[in-house]
Amino acid sequence: MSATTPSSVPATGSWQIDATHSTVTFTVTHNVVATFRAGFHGISGSLQDGVLAGSVPVENLDLGGPEIFREHLLGEGFFDAASHPTISFRSQDIRAHGDGSVHANGELTLKGVTKPIAVEGSVRGPLEVTLADGSTGQRLGITLTATVDRRDYGLNVGAGADWDVTIDVALELGNS
Q: Cα angle at 45 between 44 and 46, to 5 degrees?
């Protein structure tokens, strides 16, 4: 996309999240000096008439580390996947600006707690692109970031970990 190509979030129509090209990641500063990074695969959702909504199964946690960390994060003290199997977001409004930035207000549900959240990021498109099979289709890319206080969602950790969690979501949407 050139610098003069406008970026916008379509106010009408239906776009589906492309789970293959979309990610949900999070970072936690641990013991003041280390950054722990992990994420989830299998995001689903849509941008329907200007409302972005999506969810991801907590069980789809990807962390690339020892299994004991996965068990800890899926357990009651952290995500409690058995009782709260899904993390979800739904926007109330989403606004793209001429410089490609995007801002949205919405609700994040994490560990059974729903709270208002403001997210910001960037938007690319919508653009006509060539797909892997040689056909063409409309695609829209949205990257969103928010920082939340884990205590607000009942995510408990031991001493030495900072409380803020940064959540990054990179979405590719296809027009359906």
A: 145
